[in-house]
């Protein structure tokens, strides 16, 4: 009789009240985070973001999700219409540093990538509830990095769910250990909405070697950090609540990446104050635009973002 393997959940750290107050993990917890990312390519930090900040942002982004979904074929869906790529509103009213520049997240990414990583990507996705007569599909397992990359970790993604995230509402399927690869390209074709598929034979080999993938459960107020190159897949949302998860990508300062954020200019004083207090610890290349301009355009830019290097440019 075949033995069913139980997926292993990612390592989770719960900072103490003192660590939250100091906005830094202690040495023991930082070591746990670094080792988990080295071994599994993913780590969870629990109860590190004030829920009121998440609630404020979530209320606005749910409105935006419904607007994007109403565009049908023109919506910025990834692989299937139940999964929308969606930017957060990029002006000061909704720019909570606890969400976008979380100091514990930055402490972890800096420990691995080196001092002052470059924050050059900010977006997210919305797992939409099923529509009548339409069954939401899972994404194929894929790798976001479709350009040659070094064996050393060069980028980390911080994922912040705006509500509690679990298998029922579409927690991202994650394949621990698959970041320890140096394959230049894995499946798919450039320009498709379904790039980067991992062939089934490779999935079977990975399960035999390291066990099945997992769908982590994160309490509201928690975040996950994952290696940029790890295999993963968006999963169906079986509930009636929209599940939004943000993604910030930090790149090592030595990795060639001229991509820049586009933010409203009323965020600039917030970043400058954080930097002056020693709480930013990031390089943040930004094209500053007016609040009015960005409010008119931010929902039209989500699909087709590019990661740029000195040799290639990939969707």
From TrEMBL:
- Pfam families membership: PhyH (PF05721)
| Source domain of life | Eukaryota
Record's InterPro entries?
Answer: Fungal_Metabolite_Diox, Phytyl_CoA_dOase-like
What is the protein name given in its UniProt record?
Phytanoyl-CoA dioxygenase
